[in-house]
Amino acid sequence: MTTGLERLRDKGPLTKVRVVGEVTQADGAEVSLEAGTEVGLVAGTEVDLATGAKVALVDAAGADLKTVDEKLRVSSMPYTYDITEGNVVNHEALCIKANVAGAGTSWTDMWGVAPATTTAPIINAAIAMELVSSSAQDAVGGTGLYEIEVHYLDTSGVEQSTTIQLAGATPVAMPENVLHVNTIHGITQGSGATAPYAAAGNIDIQTSGGGTVYARIRTGGTTTSRFVFRVPSNRTGFMTDFAIFVQALSNNSSARCRLVANQDPESGDILPQGMWITYYETGGGSGGVVSAHTPAIPQKFNAGAVIKCQAQRYTGSGNADCVITACGWLENGS
């Protein structure tokens, strides 16, 4: 049998195999394997199995590949479904949701502080950050949220997560410097809270000592509404589905919504912050429009790319509302 798989594991009784290729034994030498023994193989190595020998194929981590009736499992399930179920190693489903109400004539980033602040701050060097609420009730004994999970990138741009226990209006420091915040959400409520649980005040992750806000859970919410996503330095992102609702708030007015990234669409090179390339755009009038877009080929975003969604009212009077959900996956490497 010729195989390029990384490992072959004997599952039968004592048997012998002849390994031909780059191994410690000379070509043609016989090697005895006890049941359960693993042998690492160079890609393209040939292995001759004795009659009746039983083997199992395993992945690089040593886990058995899935089989059905001792036959290698081949999935007819859509690839993204397999990712969601955890069947594809080193892949993780990704779904980003955000909304903005009252966007004006300037392009407005869809993040928790919009439209009061139209542009979400993005930094290129990690800094100290802290979490704080505008309400004392977001605390262990309060009526709001207590524990918040923060998904962020560290100094090297690698994705991390940590749990912060809020202390109301008293800031609580992040355990390390932060390059980018992708999302924050509640996981436990204060002991005085009643369902449905929600933030009692605006919960911000901000510059240590106060100042610039980088993400916010709005009062009455449990997660940040933020579409300013940075692909971790050790991963590659793929977007497969976009669903957008956009409307103008006045008759005879128009609104639009777009997905942008600081990535060259041809070379994939990461561009300077502020060089936003449009990857998808849709618009609607006072009646609103729902736009669903599934690219024929998943859109690839390389490590370090910042992807964000923006809304704008571009004709007539009044402002614009926009809601977006985008789904895809992250995978290790490039």
Topology:
Elements: E1 7-10, E2 15-20, E3 30-33, E4 38-40, E5 46-49, E6 55-58, E7 67-68, E8 71-72, H1 79-84, E9 91-103, E10 108-109, E11 129-133, E12 145-153, E13 159-165, E14 172-173, E15 180-189, E16 203-207, E17 213-217, E18 228-230, E19 235-248, E20 254-261, E21 277-284, E22 289-293, E23 299-301, E24 306-315, E25 320-332
Antiparallel strand pairs: 1-4, 1-6, 2-3, 2-5, 7-8, 9-25, 10-24, 11-14, 11-16, 12-13, 12-15, 16-17, 18-24, 19-22, 19-23, 19-25, 20-21, 20-24
Tell me about this structure.
The protein is mainly β and 334 residues long. The chain has three domains: 7-74, no CATH class; 91-109 and 228-332, Jelly Rolls, CATH 2.60.120; 129-217, no CATH class. The chain is built from one helix and 25 strands. The protein has one helix spanning 79-84; strands at 7-10, 15-20, 30-33, 38-40, 46-49, 55-58, 67-68, 71-72, 91-103, 108-109, 129-133, 145-153, 159-165, 172-173, 180-189, 203-207, 213-217, 228-230, 235-248, 254-261, 277-284, 289-293, 299-301, 306-315, 320-332. The strands form seven sheets. Strands 9, 19, 22, 23 and 25 form a five-stranded antiparallel β-sheet that branches. Strands 10, 18, 20, 21 and 24 form a five-stranded antiparallel β-sheet that branches. It has a four-stranded antiparallel β-sheet with strand order 14-11-16-17, with no helix packed on it. Strand 12 (145-153) and strand 13 form a beta hairpin. The chain is globular. It starts with 6 loop residues before the first strand and ends with a strand. Mean pLDDT is 85; it is low at 1-26.
